[in-house]
């Protein structure tokens, strides 16, 4: 009786082992939906941006006379996680000085060369930020509702 079912048992074990093994190896190729990372907008702080531009003064920041080197628009739920990557050779910060009511006044602290800072903006409106050490490195992010 046992001899008759032994080949069948081996086949069943082989099938189960094959399915289990392929799940282990193929699983990472098809991650569950809750493993999906939030959509990200990447802003590079370019090399050499620590150099003071001719004619810049801080008061220009608070008026409309200054053209922000970083000016992006994002939409909540689409690309509202903003990641700044420091591609320069010195430390920088990303420090908000204007945010809409209830909006995140993000402040990165020092971001070393090659390092990054990430903030997720969930309140619509206009955010303005600058580097604490190099005020001409200012940006404006407009966050739109989805
Ligand atoms: Cu800086």
Provide tags for this entry.
about 150 residues, alpha/beta, Immunoglobulin-like, four-stranded mixed β-sheet, three-stranded mixed β-sheet, 1 helix, about 15% helix, elongated, binds copper (II) ion
Q: Can you describe this structure?
A:
The chain has 146 residues and is of the alpha/beta class. 17% of the residues lie in helices and 27% in strands. It is built from 1 helix and 7 strands; from the N terminus they run H-E-E-E-E-E-E-E. It has one helix at 2-26, and strands at 40-45, 70-75, 81-86, 95-98, 116-120, 125-130, 139-144. Strand 6 (125-130) and strand 7 form a beta hairpin. 17% of the residues are buried. Residues 50, 92, 131, 133-134, 137 line the site of copper (II) ion (CU).
Give a nutshell description of this structure:
The protein has one helix spanning 2-26, and strands spanning 40-45, 70-75, 81-86, 95-98, 116-120, 125-130, 139-144.
Secondary structure elements and pairings:
Elements (H helix, E strand, L loop, with lengths): L1 H25 L13 E6 L24 E6 L5 E6 L8 E4 L17 E5 L4 E6 L8 E6 L2
This protein binds copper (II) ion (CU).
Content-based structural category? alpha/beta
Shape call: elongated
| CATH class term | Mainly Beta
DSSP strand (E) fraction? 25-35%
Q: Name the average pLDDT.
A: 86
Instruction: Return residue spans where pLDDT drops below 50 for at least 5 consecutive residues.
Output: none
